Structure formats: structure tokens, C-alpha cells
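Q: For a teaching handout, I want to show students what a protein-ligand complex looks like in C-alpha cell form. Below are the inputs, and the small molecule is (2R)-2,3-dihydroxypropyl phosphate. Please produce the holo structure.
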Amino acid sequence: TKSQLEKVKKFTDQLYAKPNDKLFGIAKGRNVIIIHLESFQQFLIDRKINSQEVTPFLNSLYHSNSTYAFSNFFHQVGQGKTSDAENMLETSTFGLPQGSLFATLGSDNTFEAAPAILEQRAGYTTGVFHGNVASFWNRNNVYKNLAYQYFFDASYYDTSGDKATGYGLKDKLLFADSVKYLEHLQQPFYAKYITVTNHFPYELDSEDKDPNFTTTNTGDTNVDNYFVTAHYLDQAVKEFFAYLQKSGLYKNSIIMIYGDHYGISNSENKNLASVLGKSSEDWNDYDNAMLQRVPLMFVIPGTNQGKIYNTYGGEIDVLPTLLHLLGISTKRYIMFGTDLFSSQHKQVVAFRNQDFVTPKYTSVNGTIYDTTTGKIAKLTAKQQKQVEKDQDFVTKELHLSDSLNQKNLLRFYDPKGFTPVKANDYNYSNGLQ
Ligand code: GP9
Ligand code: MN
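A: Here is the structure, written as C-alpha cells, with (2R)-2,3-dihydroxypropyl phosphate included.
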């Protein structure tokens, strides 16, 4: 009902963080290119194996002075995995406590998502490039409600024979074979690339393996192969950047790169410990929580003020952050995240199961750790109060986001200048199916 909506609105209005004046609008009018790095964790960045970098190209971006990167950025997905990441990044609402929001509510819910906002307020053309079938995670229906104008799914590419692995077209081919479609998009465009090759079980044909790269020898095949497919993904991104430069798109674009969620699960993290220079014997819940960091980088060519920010944040915060870089105000929308560049950004990062991380404390499975040392925290009464306050905030934001989505409350909300999206306006079939 409307009063339930009012409750949500009151909460997100109070949370709202005003933009950082120095960065607001620095990418105004540029194309937005989003690169979704499948199952890609932050520990891969700057990681060396046998003194060789696993992801040399992404590392160079991470340290570039035109990149605004984050070192304490966490994924916040639940069972919806990739689809939860997509939902958080493009709507700034959480996925559901169980299941995938895309799969269960995505066909019918009202969304006020990035593609709709950008098309309506700044004339963007919007599209997704993905080498898997359109129906996976119910994308073919959900993307219409998000207002994506184009969805170039597997049917648009040759995925025969060794051109694909389990989840679709290999990443290098996705970037290369999508150019002919990308070049037809009217600028400015908002284009999202969802990669797949670095997905469990991390399989790669020998022809795609770099003969100069040797991986770990942990004895855990997933861990060892993860570095191989991550290395391949790094090369794929490098090749795509070469195309962007050559075509001239590069300097007129902002390229946002993120990892969607973990690739190595908690039960396997012990096998990673030695690679990370840690002991597997004392590996604990805190270590697992810290490994939920994923990359977030905004590459804004020519701006030269980039750096690595140590701010704590998560996927829920991306949409207001991106919109502010594009010079689009967000105060009027219902968003559960806040601009990561804002001095008012709240550094309490909720996991979907109500655990959380802040710069000071990490709460996992009922235990509070000191985030900087990893030791179990000995809290004064005052600190205990603060932790309880943070926990209440986390519980409340997840609850209100669930209420918004489960009751489809956005259908009652009508932000200034927003035209409701009609799924029937979109048709993704390419005539070849
Ligand atoms: C497949 C892909 C994988 O289309 O996006 O999703 P995931 O299994 O990571 O949720
Ligand atoms: Mn995924």
C-alpha cells in the first residue's frame, strides 16, 4: 500500500548522500560501458603467481590516474548470484533473502532502473551484450522492465563448436563479435557486457590458454583453474580496450568494471590461503568475509584525478555513484545505496544474510571482529551500542528493500519526470530465431 511505500521513502530519504562537488558530472554526456567480470574477486588484483601477474591489464587500470577504484568494495548477492548483482547495480535495491528477484518477481514488478533513468533524462541508447541464452535468469523479461532497448544474447553470435563454454560465448569472442552491434548504437549509449568464461567450473580449451602463464599448484582444481580463466578474462578486457581506443570511443566513454560475486566458495577458501600468504589452519569466518571484496573501477579517460579509494561500500551503492559522475541528480529516487564519493556516504556494508562489515567492525555468524586486525573485538559498552546500531540499520534496510520489492511498491511511486516503463515497448528477437 501507499503507506508502506511512505515508510521506505522516509528511510531512503534520510540515507541520501549529496554528491561530491569535485566529481559530480565529470563524465557527463559520455557513453557508459559496463564490464561485468564474472565471479571475479578483488584478491586477483595485483596478485602474482610465480612472480607473474594474474591480471596485468586490470592491474594497470586499477593503478591508472584516470581510474577511480575501490579497495574495500564488497559484493552483496544472495542466491540470485549474477542476477542479484545486476539488480543491485541497476536499481539500488537488494536481491531477495531467498531465490533470485529477477527470476521470481522480475517479469511483473515495477522498476525505476538505470536504463530508464538514463534514457529519459539524458537520451541514452541502452543495450546488453551477453553470450548466454536470453532466458537465463529470466533476463528476456526483466530487461524489458528495466527499459533496456536492446539485448544481444547468444542468438546474435556464432556460439557453435569451441566458440563457447558452459555459460556461453567465450569472452574474447563476445567483445569482438559484438562490435558490429555496438557500432550501430546511437551515442551516448549505456552498454553492459556480461562475461561468462570465468565461471565455475573454470574450464578453458587449451587453444585459449596463455602458454606463458603458469597457475598455482594447490591441488584444488577449482582454485588452480580459477586463475587461468581470470587471466583469460584479463586478456579479453585488454583486447576490448584496444578496440575502444582504435575506434575513438575510449575518450568519450566512462568504463565501469566490477566483479559480481565470489568465484571460490567459503568451503574452498582454505585451499586459497597459501596463495594469499596466509595459514589455512587459522582460517575463519572473518577471513571468508574479507574475501567477499570484488573490484569496482570507474575508468574516465583524460580526467587524471583518479586514485584508489579505501571507502567501504557495496554493490547497492553503485547506481547513485555512477549517476552522479554522469551529472544526474538522484535525490528523487528510492535507492538503498549512497554515492561512494560523497562525504555523507554510510560505510556499513550489509551482506544478504544480515552479517555486515564496517571500517571498524565485522559481524559474521554472531561474532564481532575488529575489521583492521581480524581479532575478535573486545567491545566497551559504548562500542557495543554502536555495533547494535549498525546491526539495526542493516536489518532495517534489508527488510525495507524486501518490502518494496515483494509488495511491488514502486508501482505507487512516481518520481519527478519519470515515465513508467512498458515492457511491451521492447522486442529483443533478431528475426533469426
Ligand atoms: C549466465 C551468467 C551466470 O548467464 O550470468 O550467472 P551466475 O551463475 O553467476 O549467477
Ligand atoms: Mn555470476
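A: Two things your students might notice: The CA atoms of residues 1 and 99 lie 24 Å apart. The chain has a mean pLDDT of 98.
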